[in-house]
Write a structure and sequence with these properties.
Bound molecules: glutamic acid
CATH class of the largest domain: Alpha Beta
Strand order of the largest sheet: 1-2-3
GO molecular function, one term: glutamate-tRNA ligase activity
InterPro entries: aa-tRNA-synth_I_CS, Glu/Gln-tRNA-synth, Glu/Gln-tRNA-synth_Ib_cat-dom, GluQ/Sye, Rossmann-like_a/b/a_fold
Number of helices: 10
Oligomer: single chain
CATH topology of the largest domain: Rossmann fold
Structural class: alpha/beta
Helix content: 25-40%
Pfam family, one: tRNA-synt_1c
Family: Belongs to the class-I aminoacyl-tRNA synthetase family.
Largest sheet: 3 strands, parallel
Number of strands: 12
Protein name: tRNA glutamyl-Q(34) synthetase GluQRS
Length: 286
C-alpha cells in the first residue's frame, strides 16, 4: 500500500478571556494556512474558570467563522480534560520530579530581593522561582499547594535524551537545541498545577497537542521560551515533539503587542465598522 507524506495538523488555541483581536486573527489564519493541505483544529483553552466566559467562547466561534475559517468538530475544551491532565501530573510525580509549593508571588519577590540573590531574573512565567519549597515532599502536599517541576531533577532524569525541536520558518526549518543550564537559570521550576485550576497552561497544552495529534504548533514568538518547557515535558511524558512555528506578533502603533483588553483592535469592532475579512487580512499583512 502506498503511503503518502503525513498531512500536517495545526491548531489555534485561544482562551475565552476576552474578544479576539487582530493578533488572534493573524495566529488563526497562519495556523489554518499551514494546514492546507491537512487539518486545522480549534481548541478552547478554558482551564482558568475564573477568567473564562461563555460569551467570549461564543464570540471566538463567530469571529473565526466570519474570517472564513472552518475547523474540525467537536472542538476540544480544556475544561473537560481534567482526567488526562491528572494522569500526566501523577506520572511526573511518580518519577519523583515534582514538589508542592505554597509560595505566593509576594513570597517569591521577597525571597528574590535578599541582597545575596542579585538581580532577579524573569522567565516565561515571570520571576524565576528561587526554590524555597524544593525540599518539600509530595506526601506533604495540601489543597492550597501548587505543584512544581524540579527542573534540575527533570534534566538529570532526561540525561542522554536529545532535547531539541524543529522550528519551521519562512525559509528553512532549523533545529533548536535546548540548553540545560539555560533551562535551570532562565526557566526554572515551572508550575505544573495551580491549586485553583488543578493543572497549568504548560501541562495542559502538551497533553492536548499530543492527544490531538498536532504535527505543527503555530504560535506567537512571545511563546518561544514556553516551547522549551513543552519539549522537556514531552520528553518526560514520552509524547511526540511536534514542529514549531513562532510567528511575529501584531503590534499597535506604539509597537506594543496587542492584549485581550485592547478592545480597540477586536476583530468584531472592525466587522461592526463595515470592514470585510479581506480588509482585516490586509491590516495584518496577509
Ligand atoms: N492559549 C494560549 C494563548 O491564548 C496559546 C496556546 C499555545 O499556542 O500554546 O495565548
Amino acid at each position: 500500500m502506498a503511503c503518502g507524506p503525513k498531512l500536517r495538523r495545526t491548531r489555534f488555541a485561544p482562551s475565552p478571556t476576552g474578544l479576539l483581536h487582530l493578533g488572534h486573527a493573524y495566529a488563526a489564519l497562519t495556523a489554518a494556512a499551514r494546514a492546507d493541505p491537512g487539518e486545522f483544529l480549534l481548541r478552547i483553552e478554558d482551564i482558568d474558570a475564573a477568567r473564562c466566559r461563555p460569551e467570549f467562547e461564543a464570540a471566538i466561534y463567530e469571529d473565526l467563522a466570519w474570517l472564513g475559517l472552518d475547523w474540525q468538530r467537536p472542538v476540544l475544551r480544556q475544561s473537560e480534560r481534567r482526567e488526562a491532565y491528572d494522569t500526566a501530573l501523577n506520572h511526573l510525580i511518580s518519577l519523583g520530579l515534582c514538589y508542592p509549593c505554597r509560595c505566593s508571588r509576594g513570597d517569591i519577590r521577597a525571597a528574590l530581593s535578599a541582597p545575596q540573590e542579585g538581580v532577579p531574573l524573569t522567565g516565561p512565567d515571570g520571576l524565576i522561582y528561587p526554590g524555597t519549597c524544593r525540599e518539600r515532599a509530595m506526601s506533604d502536599a495540601g489543597p492550597a499547594d501548587a505543584i512544581r517541576l524540579d527542573m534540575a531533577e527533570a534534566l538529570r532524569f532526561l540525561d542522554g535524551v536529545p532535547l531539541w525541536f524543529t522550528e519551521t520558518g519562512p525559509v528553512h526549518p532549523r533545529v533548536q537545541a535546548l540548553n540545560n543550564d539555560q533551562l535551570i537559570t532562565h526557566v526554572g521550576d515551572v508550575i505544573l498545577s495551580r491549586p485553583s485550576i488543578g493543572t497549568s497552561y504548560h501541562l495542559a497544552v502538551v497533553v492536548d497537542d499530543a492527544a490531538q495529534g498536532i504535527t505543527e504548533v503555530t504560535r506567537g514568538e512571545d511563546l518561544f521560551e514556553a516551547t522549551r518547557i513543552h519539549v522537556v515535558l514531552q520528553r518526560l511524558l514520552e509524547l511526540p515533539v511536534p514542529t514549531y512555528r513562532h510567528h511575529t506578533l501584531i503590534r499597535d502603533d506604539a509597537g506594543k503587542r496587542l492584549a485581550k483588553r485592547d478592545d480597540a483592535r477586536a476583530i468584531r469592532r472592525y466587522r461592526d465598522e463595515g470592514d470585510t475579512p479581506a480588509d482585516v487580512r490586509i491590516k495584518i499583512g496577509l
